[in-house]
Give the backbone structure.
Amino acid sequence: MSMREFFVLLMVCTIWGLHFVVMKVTIGGATEPLFYAALRMSCVLICVLPFLKWHTGYMGRILIAGLGYGALSYAFMFPALGMTTASAAALTIELYVPFAIILGIIFLGERIGLRRFIGIVLAIAGVAIIAMAKPDESAGPQYLLGIGLMACAAMSEAVGALMVKKVTGIKPLELLAWFAVVGSVVLWPLSFALEDNQLRAFSPENRGPFLAALAYSTVAVSIMAHGSYYWLLQRLPIYIVSSSGLMTTVVAVLSSAILLREPITPPFILGGLLTLLGVGFILYARKLRAEATPPPEV
């Protein structure tokens, strides 16, 4: 990894980590979650519309990746943040890594190996402890459901990541444009079907925080961070890029504790450490496997 790639990865992790705080505050008071997600994706689409191009032979994979990254992950994640804490959500989304391994075993015939098996077990056990360790009233009465929805978001992202890895020669902003299309097409009907009073986001008391959060989500998170992440996925081995989740989680948990005063209880610490340790096992196993694989003959 070059210094340029490292600093890009660090920027992505910082933006994503702080985004959990932004989303928690916004969804918790200023707007409906699916409406926020749908409007965000439409704003992204407007910004990257010039990059929307048809890619013959790749569109199936691109649309599936968009369904995972741009639609279903947000459909699960944003409502979940209204039910759980930002720190618990950030740790639960780490299931994306073991879920990607499980999908690889099921659909690609990959072998799991002892280290990766241990990592999967530890990560899932850690999230289970977090789910049972509801902190206090800051989590909300549907805390356990929120953890479950975040796990579904992690699975959706795992599907998206596998598809992105199979797409080569397409610029990140071109991918992002199609993901915004898929997200808009899926999320707007969901919002109209499941939510009401969406326009309260533009009331005088909510307008300022809502528009600021929307700008952060659109420009910083979707265009800068996601675009950079897709760029990294196409340049680096997936086990290196996947380490961004660990760094993002650390930023999210620390910022949630400092900015939102979320409680960090002993069971939560235990679950969080097990989750991160499990993901670390998986990433380490990927690293060893990649180093042991001989380069292709040319």
In short: Residues 292-298 have pLDDT under 50 and may be disordered.
